[in-house]
């Protein structure tokens, strides 16, 4: 079986990984400042480090999900891109900078890339093996079955 991912999906995954690495870099920079004692509010910096690492982990997991053709991975990635576009537009409203333009371009590229037909098709295929929840439930003979979510009522009858 030949593994052929659309080039657009490869590009989207790489850009999402670049975003994840950028957040790891931010977390490291904030951690270095914290350890040097160059911060005024240490609690806020600790939060920023944990938050940046959490976003990096989420983006890395989503990139892996996209790479494996998982449908769920599109949602966190597109949500993050929308937030990045809003932040970049806010930054550009204050001052035009290379970083704000770069964030805007990458976020738009990833967002548009996720919505293009080859990427959507690659992340919605049902070629994955069935999960445990999709397998039929086999019960021993003679035991009554109830619809999911219903319990036996006290007293023995319904």
TrEMBL record:
InterPro entries found in the cross-reference section: MFS_trans_sf
Ranges annotated as spanning the membrane: 7-32, 44-63, 75-92, 98-116
Keyword set, alphabetical order: Membrane, Transmembrane, Transmembrane helix
Keyword Lyase included in the entry's annotation: no
Transmembrane recorded as keyword: yes
Residue span of region Disordered: 125-158
Basic residues bias (residue ranges): 149-158
This protein's name: DUF2568 domain-containing protein
């Amino acid at each position: 079986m030949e593994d052929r991912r659309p080039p657009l999906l490869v590009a989207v995954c790489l850009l999402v990984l670049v975003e994840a690495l950028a957040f790891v870099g931010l977390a490291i920079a904030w951690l270095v400042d914290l350890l040097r004692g160059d911060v005024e509010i240490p609690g806020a910096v600790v939060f920023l480090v944990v938050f940046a690492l959490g976003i990096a982990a989420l983006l890395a997991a989503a990139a892996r999900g996209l790479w494996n053709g998982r449908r769920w991975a599109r949602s966190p990635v597109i949500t993050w891109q929308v937030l990045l576009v809003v932040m970049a537009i806010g930054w550009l409203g204050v001052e035009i900078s290379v970083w704000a333009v770069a964030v805007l371009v990458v976020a738009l590229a990833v967002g548009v890339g996720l919505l293009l037909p080859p990427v959507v098709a690659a992340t919605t295929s049902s070629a994955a093996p069935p999960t445990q929840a999709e397998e039929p439930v086999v019960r021993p003979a003679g035991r009554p079955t109830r619809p999911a979510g219903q319990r036996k009522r006290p007293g023995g009858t319904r």
